[in-house]
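SAMPLE LOG
Freezer: B-3
Tube label: C17
Construct: single chain, 83 aa
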Amino acid sequence: MKVLYFARFRQLVGRGSDDISPPADVKTVGDLLAYLVRTDNGCAAAFTDEKIIRAAVDQSHVKLDHPIAGAREVAFFPPVTGG
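STRUCTURE (predicted):
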């Protein structure tokens, strides 16, 4: 699965993406986030406040409890505003 990091998260993680195979117990976007924080210092620095993390699975916005089974891509980005 490809994991993408955007905006501020990309800067803090230090790269724009990863190709990973998470363990079987990683079942939701939130589980994936916790796994990344545990296993990667850049992600630990970037994802300190779950309240500001937005996610998309296969380019559809989702909540952190969304399942990732079969997902090809998960993206993390901070809140954005338009105008």
